[in-house]
Amino acid sequence: MAEIVSLAEAVERAIRDGDAVAMEGFTHLIPFAAGHEVIRQRRRDLTLIRMTPDLIYDQLIGAGCARKLIFSWGGNPGVGSLHRFRDAVEHSWPVPLEIEEHSHAGMANRYVAGASGLPFAVLRGYNGTDLYRLETLQGGQGSVPTIKPITCPFTGETLTAVSALRPDVAVIHAQRADWSGNVQLWGIIGVQKEAVLASRRCVVTVEEIVDELDPRPGAVVLPGWTVSFVARAPGGAHPSYALGYSARDNDYYVAWDAIGRDRGTFSRWLDELYYPGGTTPPRPPRDRGDPSPRTPLGGAPPPEPLDGPPCG
Q1: What does pTM read for this prediction?
Q2: CA proximity to 183, closest of 167, 170, 200
Q3: Residue 301: pLDDT above 80?
Q4: Residue 174 three-state SS
């Protein structure tokens, strides 16, 4: 059953050096606060898994936390490249990064297979592509490929089998949990449910903890027995958003391009992240001639939920 703990304790107990860690959330509910705590605790040699690596994995890769990335798309949404990711692949800075590339459908089906307790999933989507080669792009000699052709026993058709994803840890952000550790999320839903069910351990950060989860249209509820740790982290999806609680910080995404592009600028950002007085990473400074003062070190206070004050 889920334990309700601080975010620092959740990361300390759930994520270990060398783990395979899936941080999921599509467009919103991206678990930035948890990712930043992983950086603070200086986890190393992680295999990072995510369908759409964006800023959070750029930051983790730049901080030297990752040795491998399993993914299907990577970029700064609406802005451009992930420069720390690119620097690691092209120049091994700060450490070499192995990559394993799949399609979106392949990643989603791999999660479903893992959540279902199956060894692999079957789909047509890889036929005619070179992903069979790309998934072992960086020296797969002696390793077990995760993409294999398979013959349908009923029709004789050649399909593609992709091995199940079974992360050591899934990390997600959600709107709410109750005191029993049941978790509720709504809005744009990605593969959070499948990632949690496929993983051995799970950390969920939430905007608030409530006495009772009231019904929401289209909501997903993860029962407490599927979750290892719940940590209250208001604003924990920033700079992405949590529907009903916060808005997307578009300026952050734009500003990150300049920060991530230069090793020195990124390293200074990282030093600020470790500043003893800070509890959350500072917001990147604006670069649009905006005369407004920068957010103080440690970040802005978390936003108030739109439908009422946080519990606790």
Answers
A1: 0.85
A2: 170
A3: no
A4: strand
